[in-house]
Amino acid sequence: MNKWLKWCAITLLATVLGGCGYNDFQARDEAIKAAWGEVVNQYQRRADLIPNLVNTVKGYASHEKETLESVTRARAAATSFQITPEVLNDPQAFQKFQQVQGELSSALSRLMAVAENYPQLKADGLFRDLQSQLEGTENRITVARQRYIKSVQEYNVLARRFPTNLTAMIFNYDVKPSFTVENEKAISNAPTVNFGK
Fold this sequence. Notes:
Blueprint lengths: L1 H19 L1 H39 L4 H16 L10 H25 L3 H5 L1 H36 L3 H7 L10 H7 L10
Helix pairs in contact: 2-3, 2-6, 3-4
């Protein structure tokens, strides 16, 4: 009889734990971290391209000092932002991350608009190569953001749906911030880098 009670207790515990969603939260949290890592990697790739891009433009358009400096400042702000795991759980920190990346996108757009006025710059092979790399990186950023948004959506649905919302309350699994519609509109437009070839 004692063994039978043990097996019943183990079976009941396994059933309760299996249905509570605890393991699902762990899996979805790891998926969010992986997707976020890709977002950060792509933003870093973009930031790494900027110094060469600015120097190339500077060689042809040195008197566009204000635009070049705004790109440099925006890059500095974006790369100095401390991206810690807490950013994923802090809506204000996440919003700040979006803001600095949006400002960098805006500054790059202005730089590309300035470059449009310099036919020799547009013909420069290094500039065209950097332009192509930047365009590809902007596309990768968009894809990485979409994957992150989907991962957060799946996690947040799990955190809000019954009965897993009970597990979320017990273990303090709060909903995660994601790119917002107003910010997504601002940051989803890749800088214009496609010049006539």
